[in-house]
Structures are given as structure tokens and as C-alpha cells.
Amino acid sequence: MDPQAIMQIRRNCTRFLNGHYRQTPQQALASLAAYTTPDIDADMYGAGAVITDFERDVAQILGKEAAVFMPSGTMCQQIALRIHAERAGTNRVGFHPLCHLEIHEQQGYQELHHLRGVLIGDPMHLMTLANLQTVAEPLAALLIELPQREIGGQLPAWEDLVALTAYARAHGIALHMDGARLWQCNSFYGHGYEEIAALFDTVYVSFYKDLGGIAGAILAGSADFIARARVWQRRHGGNLVQLYPYVLAAGKGLTEHLARMPAYYDKARSLAAALAALPQISIVPDPPQTNMMHMYLRGDRERLVVAALGIAQETGTWLFPALRPTSLPDLHTLELTVGAATLDLPDAEIADLFRQVFARAE
Amino acid sequence: MDPQAIMQIRRNCTRFLNGHYRQTPQQALASLAAYTTPDIDADMYGAGAVITDFERDVAQILGKEAAVFMPSGTMCQQIALRIHAERAGTNRVGFHPLCHLEIHEQQGYQELHHLRGVLIGDPMHLMTLANLQTVAEPLAALLIELPQREIGGQLPAWEDLVALTAYARAHGIALHMDGARLWQCNSFYGHGYEEIAALFDTVYVSFYKDLGGIAGAILAGSADFIARARVWQRRHGGNLVQLYPYVLAAGKGLTEHLARMPAYYDKARSLAAALAALPQISIVPDPPQTNMMHMYLRGDRERLVVAALGIAQETGTWLFPALRPTSLPDLHTLELTVGAATLDLPDAEIADLFRQVFARAE
Questions:
Q1: How many Å apart are CA A188 and CA A292, to the nearest integer?
Q2: What is the pLDDT of residues A282-297, one digit of tens each?
Q3: How close B106 gets to chain A, by Cα (Å)?
Q4: CA B21, B22, B28 angle in degrees (round to 5)?
Q5: Backbone angles phi, psi at A139, to 5 degrees
Q6: Is B71–A244 a contact, with Cβ atoms under 8 angstroms apart?
């Protein structure tokens, strides 16, 4: 189907399976103007209360001395690993084969920072202590993503995470957390963000995924580490004259969504159970460990998509506009993140809509 | 004086010597929401009409095949020089000693891109053809800033610019324009942006300086060059999931200010003449060649600043909150860019306010 036609169907929908209700730029800017107050001045190259207060608040949530707001997580993480590498005196950094740096950043860590990536473990599973123990050469840093997005938001058991980080620490390996979706982890671990972050030297968190911001990220760590990160931020072209649209949207997102993360998690668990009851659906991980999951759907890909778009047109309920292929021709995946919009759809109704999708696609 | 007190004085002012009227984030976001329309959807990682239409429009203004919007000029320019260097097979790039890359970017071009800078000419003057002819080693690219901000917005005469770029071209040196303030150049040259840009392979322009945007920049050039630049943009962490606040503000700025640049230029010329009549003031360049200039003020620095703040408090007219030192203890500089706010102040009144500043500071 023509992309314009698909976008028009989406525009006419009022209910959405995935994430939060999307706003147009006009709606988002107007709601941001209403959220902020007349006494708030613009930031300037990282200075100004609007940005420094927010950095302090997030540092406190994460139990770190300092934090710096940057335009992107890509920037935060390359910079964190570069500084860890310079401190360690080796440019070798370890991460999972499906790490964001390895698969989504055009090898910026190599091209810009001359770091060498050591891929640890198996793509489809979490990195284990045994995997880490096979690394024979010294590592400057180990990056662990919590939860791990590319495999459905899986999380290591708390004891496994503690063992992995303790081993790294004992071997002089700095620990960096890719916490793009860290906000999702509390319910599973039963530990606060501060306790989870305490296992790491540096932590990156994002604001436009679960928190509904516009863009932007924070890197948190010790005061001297963050001071060095600010130098690299300028080198990257990320010390923007004004970042306030992103900072304000991030603050609004924290206020609106952080307290609701347990509700999103509970919904993910109940919805996954309802969906897994369908013979054409498998859920990874089952049960979900966060408010995200990967659905595996069996059937003809094109027909499934057309069926979902037809249902969107008829019912105003947006399910999915595409499916990602797997190596099996009749098996496809769909990433599902439970947000404010998902909460408004009863589990039984979602399961029924998927039943209709499969029936139409037969 | 306490920075908070200074900010409070500024908040109470209604008239401003420098630039455009400043908006609080709340005002800027609300006016941006009013500027955009409900049918405009958010961009996504560089895709979407809101960003691609704007890139096409600016490419057209500059007479280039393609353009890419990035969060900052720092990113645009390092990337442009990196690509020119890879094409040329040397990492040596030439620029003026006061080039932004050399003095404001923490040597990102060296640290991230392993480029070597060749500083050409004298810091206080424009680069000349004779300067360029002294460079004995091959250069991948030559960066020319039009106008040159750190020396008051000076511009080479058109014939000199043509000769400089022709020499570079004849010697296989790629040409990159730092056009952060290119929008100011039309009146002086009597040539359109497209004609000026035609002397260069790649051009960077900015949107938050003369055009009153929030942040953001564009790099324009050939289609294949810009395609490569997009790869580097992702490596830099500049391919943001959403850039629409910056893009929309840039579009609004072009609409509101571009046609007024000749008026800003005329005002700069008349204002400079009025100010230069004061014995304590010199103007560089005199007369101004764009809508910016550097003022040199003679007197006691601290007393001049206190006097200007006092006048701001009493008259609601904001002159300056600080002066930049020179190597002479009683000589200080002030950068002045004529914008919408300046237009509303009669030249004679500004000159009279400066007369009062000097009288009080005696």
C-alpha cells in the first residue's frame, strides 16, 4: 500500500496498540508551552537553570554525582566509552552483538573514536558471565543494556547482573549502562533506579521512548567524568546553543509517565498472556520482563499487514503498519511497547482484533 | 554585579540594542505552535516532509543539489571537511587562525576526525590570496568564513573572493564555506546567495543567529556528498529521532527575517556612523560590511558595564552586560548585530545613551 495512504489511515485512528498517543508537532509544542512557565529562561550552551536543574534531578534519580543532557544517546554512549578507554589505556570495549553501537550507529565508535568492539555472547540471548569469562584480552569498559531491546526487552536476573558486574569490576573493567529503557526495569527487579545504577560507573538514559519526550538523552556518572564528557559533547557538535525544547519535553515526560511505569508493566504481562493464547502468536520474553515485548506472528506477511490496516480503517484502532521478517518465511516479528495508549484498550479486545487479522489473512 | 540581578534587569527591559527581541521558551514554543499547521507530522530520523521539504528549500536558495539539516554547525563543518579529506587523500585542511573549528570546538576536528589544520593568514585580518600561496603542502579543503565573525563580520571584496577560490580550485583544493552568517552578505556583494555559494563545493548555514531560530544548521552540496554526510551525521549522534522544533523555528526565521536583511544592513551602516562620531568609540570594520560590527570602547571596563546596566535599569533599554577585554587595559570590545530589536531604536538615541555611559564611567 502507498505510504501516504497508510499515514492517512493512521491519522484517522483514535486508538493505538503501541506506546503513547502520538502528538503532531503543533500539539506537542502547544502542550509544552502550557507545561512551562513564563519565568523559565532559555538555556545557553548548556548553562541556565532549565537544563542544569534537570541534569541535577536526573543525576539524583540515578544516584550519580553529575549528569549532562545531550541531543542523543548515540553521542552519550560513544563519549562514555571513549573516556573509559582513555582512562584504561586500551581502546577495546565489550558489548553484546546487538548493541546499539554495533548495529545502529554506522560504526561511529570505530570511525570517530577508534575504539575496537569486542562482541560478547550470542545475538539472540542475554550476555552471561560465562560469555564474559571467555574474553581473553583486557577491556576498557563493558556496556550492558537494561533491558535489551533487540531481544524483546530481556533482563538478566538480579543475581546474574550482580555477578556479571562484580566480575567486570574485579577485572578492572569499567561498567557502562545503556539505559535507553531503564525506566522499564523497576517492577522486574524490585530495586530502585539508584540501586540498579549503582552497579555501573556511567549510565545513559533516554527521554523520548517510554517517557514520550521529543529527543534527547542524559549521561550520568562521577563529577569529573561528566566534566570530561562535556568537552567531548562540544567536539561532537552536541553542545547546542539551546536544548530547551528537548529538556522541557523530557521533564514533562518524567512527570507524566515515570509513576505509571508499573501500570504499563502490569498491562504488558496481562496483554501478553491474552495474546499468547492465540495459536499464531508467540511472545518473547514470555512472560514479558518489562513493558515491552516482541511478538512473533505466523502467516503471510503481506496479508497480515493488509488485514491490520483494514481493521484500522474500519475500527479506528491502529495495530501495526508493517512486520519485520525473520529467517522463516511465515514468521514475522512486531515490537510492542505498552504505553498510555495501550492502557486504554482492553486485553480481550486486542486479542480479538488479532484473531480477526489472522482470519482475514488466511 | 550578581548574575541574577543582571538577568532581572534584562527581564525588565523592553528595548534592546542587539539582535532580535528575545523570547522565553514559553513564548517561542507558543509562537512556533501558532506558526505550524495541524497537517504537519513529526519527522523521524531525518525522514518526513517537515524536514525534507525544508532541506530542499534551503538547497534551492543556495543553488546546491542537496542539503541535510543537523543539530549544529560544528557537526556540519567537521563532517564536510572529513569527507573532503577522504576524497582528497590527505587530512590537511586550511582555514583562518580564528576559524570556529580552531577556537570553539575543543579541537574536535583533530580528536574525532584526525584532520590536521593549516592556519592561513593573520588572526586580525582576512585571509588573502598571498597567504594561501605560501601554503606549500597539499590541502584537501579550504574553509572560508563569510562574513568572518571574529573580526567584526569582514568580507573579502568580490574580486578577491573569486581570485582566492579560483586559485584553490586550480590547485585541486575543495572549497567549503562557513556561512553561519551568510544571510548577511547580499547587500555588500550585490550577488544572490546562489551566486556566492557557487564559488564553493559545500556550504554550511545557520538558523539561530540572524534568523532567530532555536538551534540547527544545514550543510548543502552535491547529492552524493550530502548522502555521505548523512552517514557521518549518524556517527556523530546528530541523526535525531525528531528535529522538528529546530526545523520549524528555522523555517519561521527564514520567513520572517530573510527579506529584512537589507534593512538590518542599512541600519548597521547608519548606526555605525552615529556611534563612530563619539571619540571613545571605534567601529570594525568601518563602515560595516554586513549587519554586524565590533565596537571598540575606551574607558574603565567595570565602570562602563555598571553604567550600561544603570541605564538599562532607568530607561528599559538594554545596551550590554559585559565587555570583552583587548590587550590594552582601557580598550574593550562589544559585538553588535543589528536585528529586529535594533531597528526600533533611533540611531541618535543609541548614540546619546552611549554618551551617557561614557559620562557616568568617567
A1: 12
A2: 999 999 999 999 999 9
A3: 6
A4: 115
A5: -115, 140
A6: no
